[in-house]
Write a structure and sequence with these properties.
The structure holds 2 protein chains of 2 kinds. Chain A is an all-beta fold. Helix content of chain A is about 0%, strand content about 55%. In chain A, the strands form 2 sheets. In chain A, strands 2, 4, 5, 9, 10 and 11 form a 6-stranded mixed beta sheet that branches. In chain A, strands 1-3-8-7-6 form a 5-stranded antiparallel beta sheet, with no helix packed on it. In chain A, strand 6 and strand 7 form a beta hairpin. By secondary structure, chain B is mainly β. Chain B contains no helices and 11 strands. In chain B, a hairpin with a 2-residue loop joins strand 5 and strand 6. Chain B is globular. The chains are: A mainly beta, B mainly beta. Chains A and B meet through strand 4, strand 5, strand 9 and strand 10 of A and strand 4, strand 5, strand 9 and strand 10 of B.
């Protein structure tokens, strides 16, 4: 059973507009959430994270929102740039000290010039 | 700092062959892990380690072995390669929530 779901395999937006990537989860024990970005032929790189005690975290053009009651988080990129074109993975941690993460299947974002 | 390094970058194996994928990190991270990435499947955890001498299974451990004799190294062994193990393999390390990934090894089993 997939515990972290990214239901949109792909998303296409125009440069300068907002990109919104969504992620849903089923495990209520998840206490920390992360977004990773992956370019082709490279390893994923950390983008932004949020603790379950917060509902928003912002870092430059990137903002993550967490709605615990809906078990939903989203990543907003404003304004979107062509260099943001990549696969974005949502990941969640379920507590404990082992730092194990459960990843979603990813969303391919394409930002068109 | 080289970060997380993986060798080889590419490998082709025949069914039944064995091999070891190497992973090393120079950040003194206690936590290390191996993932595989398959089309439409995201990143799935194979094995992980919380420190030297301590390893545990992840979501898809069958057909793989690991050991952690030093903080720096975390090799992944394929005992008898199968076509289902064709994938891209990523090693990661961390001291906290943020995991640092290596560049990956693309493995093809024919």
């Amino acid at each position: 059973d997939q515990q972290v779901k990214q239901n949109s395999p792909s998303l296409s937006v125009q440069e300068g507009r907002i990109s919104i990537l969504n992620c849903d989860y089923t495990n209520s024990m998840f206490d920390y959430f992360l977004w990773y970005k992956k370019y082709p032929a490279e390893g994923p790189t950390f983008l932004i994270s949020i603790s379950s005690i917060k509902d928003k975290n912002e870092d430059g053009r990137f903002t993550v929102f967490l709605n615990k009651s809906a078990k939903h988080l989203s990543l907003h990129i404003v304004p979107s740039q062509p260099g943001d074109s990549a696969v974005y993975f949502c990941a969640a941690h379920s507590g404990g000290s082992n730092y194990k993460l459960t990843f979603g299947k990813g969303t391919l974002l394409t930002v068109n010039p | 700092n080289a970060g997380v390094t993986q060798t080889p970058k590419f490998q082709v194996l025949k069914t039944g062959q064995s091999m070891t994928l190497q992973c090393a990190q120079d950040m003194n991270h206690e936590y290390m892990s191996w993932y595989r990435q398959d089309p439409g499947m995201g990143l799935r955890l194979i094995h992980y380690s919380v420190g030297a001498g301590i390893t545990d299974q992840g979501e898809v451990p069958n057909g793989y072995n690991v050991s952690r004799s030093t903080t720096e190294d975390f090799p992944l062994r394929l005992l008898s390669a199968a076509p289902s193990q064709t994938s891209v393999y990523f090693c990661a390390s961390s001291y906290g929530w943020e995991q640092y990934f290596g560049p990956g090894t693309r493995l093809t089993v024919t």
